[in-house]
Structure formats: structure tokens, C-alpha cells
Write a structure and sequence with these properties.
By secondary structure, this protein is of the alpha/beta class. Helices cover 36% and strands 16% of the residues. It has helices at residues 14-23, 77-84, 105-114, 124-133, 178-189, 213-219, 231-237, 264-269, 271-290, 292-307, 313-321, 331-343, 359-367, and strands spanning 8-9, 65-70, 96-101, 119-122, 139-148, 150-154, 169-172, 204-207, 224-228, 241-245, 256-263, 323-325. The radius of gyration is 20 Å and the shape is globular.
Length: 381
Amino acid sequence: MPATGTTRKLRSSHSLRRSIVAAAALPLLIGALASCGYGSDAKKDDAPAKENVAADAGKKLSATEVRIGYFPNLTHATALVGLQEGLIAKELNGTTIKPQSFNAGPSEIEALNGGSLDIGFIGPSPSINGYVKSKGSNLRIISGSASGGVKLVVNPDKIKTLDDLKGKKIATPQKGNTQDVAFLNWISEKGWNVDPESGKGDVSVVRTDNKVTPDAFKQGSIDGAWVPEPTASKLVSDGAKVLLDETDLWPDKKFVITNIIVSQKFLKEHADVVEAVLRGTVKTNEWINANPDKAKASANAKLAAEGGKPLDAKVIDPAWTSILVTDDPLAGTLKTESDWAVKAKLIEQPDLTGIYDLTLLNKVLKAAGKPEVSDAGLGVK
């Protein structure tokens, strides 16, 4: 799928790789991945960890540190690669990054609202919930990060068609999270009924932590899952089959799966730091698109640092190609996901006016010669 604007499908291109390798002056990736079959570009890097190392040159920024949260998911590729390669730190001119890893949206929102986190990579549903619960006072969405990377995978011995899901047990990561809301909406459009609170009904929606889902599938306690990558491909490697890619349900095959959010307090007091982080994320997405194999290996290196070992090629290869990195927050799709949550009676109809502030992002994009992006009428007035 060819790139347009600030987006491009994360896929390998042998001819691109040859030309990039010939010209690149970027650091080589850590050696642990070279032995795991993630491409000949992955070589040992004896340099110190780069995520907390910022450039010394240039004007010092208004904060000595910035606390950045993210998930150890491939749908957070911008964060994983940007931290691993030092591409975000390079823009901070001495301001130190304090990275924080989270496993669930509510805990990241709590950290942001509680003042222990400044900037976070997070899904649309937690963004909406956090904004609504604080009555619009605590966060802003300042950029997009990723689209896609969500699949319905099932036990092919029990489920052969979409209609076969009726009466089966299907996992989602958490009640009210982005995938849970999407699955509940899909069930509703099938004309089936499920209680959104208990998950009981024509389909049993089993809220299961992504770390537990593969074992639950192996043990037969679930029949499938509507989950993000790399969990979906982990299940496929254990015998599951992809029955539906959520991308196929959306117009233009794009929907927001990861946003970048910021504390309004931090944005007000340290706009220069926020702008620098956004320069780093825009450059990270550009580097990912230009170096898909290196970027895949880099993300895997960061995941290995989080979980103790890299993903197998049979997991990361199909997962990586299903994710699209994008600076565009795809704001219209966030509004749709909000409407789905209202329809499922998980939230009341929210006023999302002001949830976006894309001023700094569009400034960065304009300076980089890239097209500006829209807040779909949901920006600050």
C-alpha cells in the first residue's frame, strides 16, 4: 500500500532497503536480534542505551526531564522505535526522557491525571474516557501515532465463519478498552445481544489481559480474541486463524489505534518540550517508513528489553505488516469510536470539543514540508 502524506504501510521493500543501507548513517541496532532472524540489518550496537541520551547542542528547553508513557505493543511502534533509536531524545537538547511502560489505558490515564506522567502513547477509548472524566481539564490529544494492527483470531476447529461466533467465548483486553468497544459494536451490528458490563449474551466477551490471552487460548478457556498486535499473531502462531482484520471494517482502511496525549498543565508550562517530542515522533515515523526492516528489529529490541526476549519471526513479521504509523490522529475515527461506546452504554454522550490541540504538530509538519492534519472539528477553540 503506497504512502500518502505522512503515512505508509509498514512493509519490507528489498530495493528500498538496498538503497537505504548504502546511504544510511544511522546507528546499527543491537546484536541480540541478529541471532533471532530479524533481518541482516540487525547488528550489534555497543553504544550506551539511547533512550535517555539527548543532544548537547542547541538551546536548552524549559524542563529538565519529560516523562513519557507507552505500552509494550507493536501498535506503539513510534514510541518503541523512537526511544530505542534515540530519535526523540535527539530533539530534546539535554532534557532527559523518563520512560514508563504501562499495560492498560486506565493506569496510564491515572498517571497522567495524577501528575506522574507528562506525555503518553495510548488508544482512543482511554483518551476519550480520561477527557470526559476530567470534564476536559486534564489532557489533550496532540498527535496520531498508529492505525490498524487489530484482528479477530479464532480456533479454526470451533469457528469457521463469522456466524459461528454466536455462543462462543471471545477475549478482549479490558472492559471498555478500544478493542472491547469495537467488538461490542460489531456484535450489535450482527443483531446479537451482549450485556456490556458482564460480557454475557449471544457471544461471551471475556475480558482478559493480553499477557494471559495466549495461555487461555491454549487451555481452551477462550475460543478466540479481538486483540491488537502482537497478541493476535502470537495466537496465530499457537494455531489460531485470522477471521477478520478490523482494518477492513473502516472507510479508507484507516482508524486510530494509538494517539499521543499530553497533560494540559505540562503543555501550558513546557510547550517547547512538547514540540521537541513531536519533532522526534514525526522523524521517527519517517524513519520507520524509510527503514521498515530496521524499524521492525528496533521495535523488537525494545520489546525484548521490556519482556526479556524478542518476538519470534513468525509473530513479528505478520504483525508488523498490519500496522500503519501515522502522524495524522484520524480524528473522525475517534468520534466514531466514541459513538460506539455510547451505543454500548459504556459512556454517556460526551462533548469532545477541545480534546485535540494539533497546533504544535501542524507547526512541526509545516516546517518539515509535510501536509497539516485535521482535528475534525474537535480541537481547542
